[in-house]
Specification:
The protein is α+β, with helices and mostly antiparallel strands. The chain has 2 domains: 289 residues, Ribosomal Protein S5, domain 2 (2-Layer Sandwich), CATH 3.30.230.10; 145 residues, Alpha-Beta Plaits, CATH 3.30.70.890. It is 37% helix and 20% strand. The strands form 4 sheets. Strands 1, 2, 3, 4, 5, 6, 7, 12 and 17 form a 9-stranded mixed β-sheet that branches. Strands 9-10-8-11 form a 4-stranded antiparallel β-sheet. A two-stranded antiparallel ribbon has the order 13-14. Strand 6 and strand 7 form a beta hairpin. The longest helix has 23 residues. The protein is globular. The two termini are 40 Å apart. Pfam families: GHMP_kinases_C, GHMP_kinases_N.
Length: 490
Amino acid sequence: MFNGAPGNGTNSRGNGMPCVNGDGPLVHRIKPDRKQSSPMAPAFMVSAPGKVIVFGEHSVVYGKAAIAAAISLRSYLHVTTLSKSKRTVSLRFTDVDLVHTWNIDELPWDAFQQPSKKKSYYSLVTELDPDLIAALEPHVDVSPGSPEDVRRVHRNGAFAFLYLFLSLGSPSFPGCLYTLRSTIPIGAGLGSSASIAVCVSAALLIQLRTLSGPHPDQPPEEARLQMERINRWAFVYEMCIHGNPSGVDNTVATQGKAVVFQRLDYKKPPVVKPFWDFPELPLLLVDTKQPKSTAHEVAKVGELNRMRPKIVASILDAMDKVASSATELIADDKFDEKEEESLAKVGELMTINHGLLVSLGVSHPRLERVRELVDHEGIGWTKLTGAGGGGCSITLLRPGVSREKLDKLEERLDRDNFAKFQATLGGDGVGVLWPAILKNGTKEDEEGGMEIDLEKFLNAEGTEGVEKLVGVHGDGGEREGWKFWRVESL
């Protein structure tokens, strides 16, 4: 089993220097192969969001309910189909400097095509096959000249991709280029690997023509079924990366909006209930840039629970009540995400949740500094998200906050070396741009839009450049071209 992954916190260049997410050194020095003749299909793109835990960190470990929601920071996968004569598949994950090409005819198809091993696009895979893992090992020894920590990340990315590619594909699969960029900070607990997993899963299923839509008139039952197919294979990708994932991150990245999840039995997957009516809320996401260890923070709470079981039990019960209160509040017909009164009630619950997490000892001075700066300006309600001990905080923004106050906050955050992202909570899940053409305010708009070719995609500068070029949302709202599977509650 391969462990560690792009979503597990390693993001460095071959010389040991960290990469700015979405702006690694490969972005500006990779030149795409010259255009192939007679493409079999137009280039297309798939995008999926990251996630944050809004309520219930740590208490979820003890069987309590938690809420996770999609954020508007996303991964973008560009897929180019090559001419029939080109028998290679290439993977370019620029954020972690992974570039590798395989000869399709030399991959271990025999192992994956055995009748007892062969899977269908609708199969439910709950564990990885040891024989298939062994068959892939000679093909995932990528980046031999890189440091071991980088090689581990690259091996995992290659392994997860190939496991899906060979499980879903066949020896007649066309040659392709899969190029991924992301605006999600890596290793910050924001579901970056799950976002990638959903992109890869959806792209392969689209190429197999097993998904119809998404389109506005699609029946909800059909949309649910197709998202479930994407989610099942994204979970397989996550198993390749993490071994025993909860399934929460890939579910949020697939469906968008939010989910309520609860693990009542650690021998079984958690119960995950979609929260289809979760509203879109204004969010300020701050990365403290303080490295954290989820295992360490979970162990810390475990030790406190061993020493003070009654006190910790009462804190966990209170966190459970906060999560259930938030669910009831947001699901109420009277809840209006545009009114401060409604947002304030959610914000108060976020503040309480953070205080309970502080009492468990999982905050950090950097997280408390963010809260101090936000509270001083009266901009919103802040809590840590994820395991704590560093990582990220989320702030639910008050409506109508002045630009002056936001600028002052951003200046102080910059001065203290925080990374900030204004985002939306509870947005869309997986989306498709077919073909890869968007209107970008250029003269090409009059002819139908700008074709997003590989060179443009690779050379977009940083996360802002990626969003400007291919982002699912522009200044005027949703951009024409991107389509999403959307389901409302029954």
